[in-house]
Fold Rubrerythrin family protein.
Amino acid sequence: MASPFHNPESLTIKNLESAFAGESMAHIKYRYFAKLCREMGDEETARAFEATADQEVMHAFGHLDLLFPKDKMSPARALQFAIEGETYEYTEMYPNFRHVAVAEGNEAAVQEIDEQIAESKEHAEQFKTVLEKAAKRFAALAKVEERHANHYQQVLDRLSA
């Protein structure tokens, strides 16, 4: 998840990336604990875990604000980062994890990883489709804006004549 906006060797950036990962993991873990508590009939503890999980998300967002500054982002950049991340997951990360799970004979993990590979590939394709549609729309809008500018120039030329 290295931020392209900072020196990747910076210890502060590495710490922010680790903190983001930790806060994100805590968020999901606490949501899972809430689910378990609710299944066991303990609504109060479930709500306590969910409240803390909400705070963990805000902590993670704070780290992302520093790693991916809003003034350097755009929807297209966000989509490109998402495509790269999902592609990494289905081409490198999960296949490597799968290899280890097969070697260890952990069939449940292999099945889960196979599902994740398929989903990551699907997500990458979805993001690519959105990015392609956005590019087409922006290209069309650019032509419309060019016509507007030309029209205004013609009106100005007539007024100046």
User: Anything to note?
Assistant: The helical segments are 11-39, 43-67, 75-104, 107-160. Residues 107-160 form the longest helix (54 residues).
